[in-house]
Amino acid sequence: MFYYSQQYFVAFCPFERRAKFITNLKDESKRAIITEMDGKPRNSQRINKLNDLSSSEWLKFQKSWFLHNPPPRNKKVLTHPAKFPETLIQEFIEFFTKKGMNILDPMAGTGSTLIACIRSGRNGYGIELNKKYVEVARDLIAQETLQMNMFQRVKIELFNYDANNIKELNIPPIDYCITSPPYWDMLKMKGAKTQKNRKESGLDVFYSDDPRDLGNISDYNLFIESLVHIYRLVYDLLRDKAYMTIIVKNVKKRGRIYPLAWDLGQGLSKFFTLKDERIWCQDNQRLAPYGLLNAWVSNTFHHYCLNFRKEL
Ligand SMILES: C[S@@+](CC[C@H](N)C(=O)[O-])C[C@H]1O[C@@H](n2cnc3c(N)ncnc32)[C@H](O)[C@@H]1O
Q1: Which of 113, 214, 217 for mutating ligand 1's site (highest number of atoms within 8 Å of CB)?
Q2: What is the mean pLDDT of residues 220-230?
Q3: I need a surface site. Which of 120, 155, 191, 213 has the fewest CB within 10 A?
Q4: Atom of ligand 1 nearest to the CA of 82
Q5: Distance 193 CA to ligand 1 centre (A)
Q6: Residue 164 CB–ligand 1 contact under 6 Å
Q7: Residue with the nearest Cα to atom 26 of ligand 1?
Q8: Which CATH code, of 2.60.40.10, 3.40.50.12780, 3.40.50.150, 3.30.70.2740, is assigned to 55-309?
Q9: Which pLDDT does position 165 carry in this prediction?
Q10: Of 204, 232, 229, which is closest to residue 217 (Cα–Cα)?
Q11: ∠ CA(262), CA(223), CA(299), 5° rounding?
Q12: Would you say the CB of residue 207 lies under 6 angstroms from ligand 1?
């Protein structure tokens, strides 16, 4: 029988007729020790089945929204139009896995997930269709590995492949998947000021012209179906009870919202359990006067980090 109060955890074992006390949960050093009535300490630390975090680190991650302003990008990765900060990915990996576990990103871009794996001591497997991004990622991985603690050995593999064929790659069972898809064909929408600036600087405005690239599917329903198909293949690679996080936005096109995050949540719920979302907010972006003095058009500075679990 267990009894929780706000600050203290007391375990009471009716069979042994001895009350056991675990002192203040906030105090990590004391938490490991149960003092029995007979005065002998017994090590019965509660086992953390999910990760290597302390209780306070765990609690911090449980807030349903967070601010994360990406640090300035390395010049090499500027070419990719939608790269995510490794710092953010690392926080997720460290919550959903323990050291030495296997992580997958089936649309790895310039390899943020794999870099985060090296930094956190996890094995990383990535797939990316675009050869140019694979080359950038391999360079970054080589650099990061040089800086790695020599006692920390991790396995990193990046495949220049179509995620639809993931089953051909001999990837081992995966403990956690974190990934982000193209946001439909949004990068192909002309006219946005950032797109214009990128073009003028010789940077990619969209990923590729490859018909296998999901960012080239213009039919919204077909895009959702294709994405769901790839995540179904990922599902088969995940161990039971493993989590998957998808970072995505709802998409605004020609004055209408396409609820990509919610449609994905619904589509994947046929096999995954949708647990919840964490909302990633940025507060360092300049506001644009869309619709000023005329109509409501938001500046969208948040992404959904959708957390799914494989539960049979
Ligand atoms: C949002 S980006 C991922 C960015 C990545 N998280 C990063 O931080 O660099 C989506 C990626 O999916 C890739 N992609 C699109 N279709 C794909 C497919 N069929 N197989 C593998 N990768 C694909 C694109 O080339 C693009 O790099």
Answers
A1: 214
A2: 97
A3: 191
A4: 1
A5: 22
A6: yes
A7: 109
A8: 3.40.50.150
A9: 98
A10: 229
A11: 50
A12: yes
Nearest partner of 167 among 100, 258, 88, 104, judged by Cα? 104
**193 has pLDDT over 80:** no
- Which phi and psi (to 5°) does residue 178 adopt? -130, 135
Both structure tokens of 249: 């936005």
Pocket test for ligand 1, best of 90, 213, 248 (most atoms within 8 A of CB): 213
Structure confidence at residue 205 as a pLDDT band (50, 70, 90): low
Task: Judge whether residue 295 has pLDDT over 80.
Answer: yes
124 closest CA partner among 108, 139, 135: 108
Task: Calculate mean pLDDT across residues 243-257.
Answer: 93
- Determine the Cα–Cα distance for residues 179 and 157; give it in Å rounded to an integer: 15
Boundaries of every domain in the chain: 9-47, 55-309
- Across-strand partners of 307? 245, 276
Dihedral angle over CA of 108, 113, 115, 120, nearest 10 = -160
Q: 107 CA to middle of ligand 1, Å?
A: 4
